[in-house]
Write a structure and sequence with these properties.
The chain has helices at about 1-10, 15-65, 85-120, 125-175, 180-190, 190-245. The protein has one domain. By secondary structure, the protein is mainly α. Residues about 75-85 have low confidence and may be disordered. Helix 2 (about 15-65) runs parallel beside helix 4, helix 2 runs antiparallel to helix 6 (about 190-245) and helix 4 runs antiparallel to helix 6.
Amino acid sequence: MQERLKTLESCSITSTELAARNGKRLKDIAGDVRAQRQGLADFEVYVKWMSGHVAGYSKYLAAGSVAARFAKVLPIPYAGQASMFTKFVSDAAVSLGASSVSLNKYLATSQQFVARVDTLDPARPNHAQEVSDLVRFADQDLLKGMLEVQDRLVTTSQLTTSSLSFLESLNHYVGSTDEYWAKTKALLKSDDKAEKSFLSESTTALRNKAQAFNAKFILFDATVKKAAPQIKSLVAYDDLVRSLDPRFAKLR
């Protein structure tokens, strides 16, 4: 990248031409962001669904802390928290809430970015300035929000994996013995058959939704890994535009 910038500095390319190239690259990035946005709504739906169901799983997690004392096959949702299932549910609620906030913020930021890119017009006299401002917005706001959502979704995926692992093992265990129900009735306070049915259905639902979530997250993750270096490249070229164009002297 540095060699390419030095080459451009030594040739006759103008700041206007560089700005035009950056404008085209911004439009390419906007296309990927539009594709991202199509999946963001699905992520938001999943996070809300998971938030509601973690509360429903809490009684099984709590009962599991009792069962874990005699059923060593049961995994621990988070290492070191075998006796802290309430904390697990609480942490999950906080994490999912943070994911929802990040998703909504990025929906707004990405919409603003796409809308501003759509208004770019090379024929306008202030086109270079608009492109430069938008490059900075992409770097300081869009990319920041994108990476935050990526991080939150990774945490959501890990949370899902932990919950699913526990529920699958618990579901398998209770299907092979009545020991769990006998020792946890005081906590569950419900009909064994109804509880078994709900547990089985919940496990299946979480597994199916987790598979769909992970498939979409892989696509989102790929667009982030593609966009991040592209945006950083735009910033480097924009720095060159600012160094070549006296109109940007006060910004350097």
